[in-house]
């Protein structure tokens, strides 16, 4: 039962208010993409034991999608940020680096 | 035999009596008794039979860890199996029954298993019931099912009449456990001003301290508890709750609490149980410790009890376990039991101390009281079956040669204490092996963590491995301060109270008594009392190669009973570690899983039962349908009329009548459940071009277009008519079940992919009702109501008009799902009933007939219109359904376009939509498969198609169906063979065009 703070309305939302949306920062592949690229976009997901950037929707609240940086092993949350971005903000990346010196650098982080 | 003492019993009210029944016999106890203490007071040492061997069993413990004294409580609708007598508070009229015995507790046929126990070792069932294979279904499985389970389940027709509810509670600090450690931690944290919730699972505060003695700040523990409670009561920021167990600890400080409000007072108003859903910033687990039994032969006999329990019954309830009590121990604490028994005026013929050197001050005190103490001694075996007659004593260092027989009628055993680390461990807290205490205790360096990555659970007192009263209180005070400081509070300067207790000598671990016991003794030395797992079973598991403690647990069923091994786990893994010759920490523990004790299903369900199980959505016309005899059909959370049978009419006749009336004259449908989503903004057209397979941006204001929506994986997810209200505004109709899902789908893409597009969406499904007026006389009706020009020229097919109809503001869409001349009228929900009534009145001259969802389905199937969820199932693309005409070839992109270009999607061998007409005119079974030659790898017939919709068409007078068939449209006229539900009878159907009725569309183009 996670608590994630919705960056849109500011509510520290209980997990029952939230709907999960899987991995964040996946670039959409359209009609001109190769089979391999399309497969990766549609089906292939990271499954890290460690820091994960993921999509959540404040479904039973303000209705907005947002992103969270969470450790899948410990459920430590490094921060949440608006979904209108293609990569994690610097502030979130700094916080992860500060707390997780042992973490291999994420390709996008 | 056990009995009630003439004096003593701090928890009972001797001035009053309550009566209860056990196996039908009326017995008496006092208010404050538990069922266990009252049974012991009545001399009932035998209270149940064990699960596997049906051995006679008595009360062994005094709390939540009790494995033996499980009873069925109550009767009929209120019957509850497997209740622990030790945690059941007595009330007048309580009814209890023993379990796992037939025909009676005293004469139990299943006890033959005990004689056969030699042949029923660990893994017996796994080895025995595997061959011959064919025996499984008819011989082994029925036998195992018959013998499985401990208590019997409530009757099938029983309905729990009690109320249950959920509570949400937010607090800064949650303290679990109301013993002296919990009280101290709550007081310390409370003094900082933070919100504190202190919960205790039993009906009284203070835990074991009043039983175990000593002094706190110069007072008796009982006085100190009273003063501390008073201080806590005076703090407005502190909440105290009895009979509320911290049952499970989850992520981010979420704790489930299980409160039993009426189990001890069945006539109390309000709910019986309450599930607390607690969020806490810091959690202090002051959950105490549980005493371990000693593994010696016959340690499960009625009359053998935990030393602490024997003491509890004397001090708390004024009940003695027997007249002559032998105490057997590996530590100093059990001497308190000997002294308590002695002080009650009863005899302790001997204390058997397994330690060669014996104990410290408490031993000296016992000896001074004249109690005989034998060091380096243990019990070889126990004499007597149902009632103890004595024990054979032996050297702990030896193999069990009896040295002396001591007559006794009760044995108190103590193998040391295990901290209750369940809550700590539920959410990832790790343990460390404490060599001195021979116990696992919480490792503060590897505590559970909260969302900020910091430890959020603090173990305190005995639950943290602390032994004596002074260190327990100091530890609790530290825990309270840490919790307060972590949350930004300022704890007071007050220091922990000074406590005094006799100093104790170190414990010596005893994992088998005597240490060299031969197999015959090991096979009678029980580890798990409830599941009948003995020392010999764990040895066998190790011998057969089960090295992991998790595997041994499952093979032997050690710790898998309803008590989850609270008493047995540490002994079991210590025995395993010896058998494997590996250190205990290396063997490790099994996983601690919530809840701590079983939680009632009622508490989990809370208020969510009956009409409150899930919300029901009603259209503004619901009451009209109800008063006009609608048979309801659930559609998502909505209730829609299935049909409106008249007197003497069955459903089939009603549906046929409704269709005839609609096709012949005039029908009326409540279509309010249709999803209605407004999409608005300069980029709305562009957005809808991405969402729908067809082009929506070219739609002219005032016109409608049927559209298909696919997932990015290419599969059809929804369909509906889109109306363009003005240049910037579209109204998207969705399926009844799809409105919320499709709105969420739109928002997902808008917010996370095309966030720079200027589009706004709003789900207006409930703001508007929608009334469909359908049939050849539909136009005449609207003309009669007046206000809007509905002529064929002004309002052609797939157009809409806005205006006032019979004085109500409406939008009239000329669209059709039936093939008839049809208007769907959207009206503000609040005016729906008024307009509906006007329509019904005005339509009387054309015998206007309301119709339900079944008539709607039949009419759409007659026209070959697909239905999401019937023709689609998440694996169907629009191209499968012959809907290529609704897929734009001009658009570069739409959701699903790339996916539909994949080789499997463009494969000509896909199953595609066709109409199906049985050769004999009968109705195909819905969902039936068309079979073809040969079988697949599983020996099942190969298939070449399936029925997706099937009805009797009253219009055509025969069965009609739609289905998906291999290369279907290329095989017009071919006959397929479908199988009926029995899998044997065949029914033949011809592949035909899916449009069965009015293929030219003459009826709607008027």
TrEMBL record, chain A:
GO terms for molecular function: sarcosine oxidase activity. It comes from Citreimonas salinaria. InterPro entries: SoxD, SoxD_sf. GO terms for biological process: tetrahydrofolate metabolic process. This is Sarcosine oxidase subunit delta. Residues 80-109 are annotated as: Disordered. It comes from the Bacteria. Residues 90-109 have a biased composition (Basic and acidic residues).
TrEMBL record, chain B:
Residues 621-891 form the GCVT N-terminal domain. Keywords: Oxidoreductase. Residues 524-606 form the SoxA A3 domain. Transmembrane segments: none annotated. One of its GO terms (molecular function) is sarcosine oxidase activity. Belongs to the GcvT family. This is Sarcosine oxidase subunit alpha. It comes from Citreimonas salinaria. The lineage of its organism: Bacteria, Pseudomonadati, Pseudomonadota, Alphaproteobacteria, Rhodobacterales.
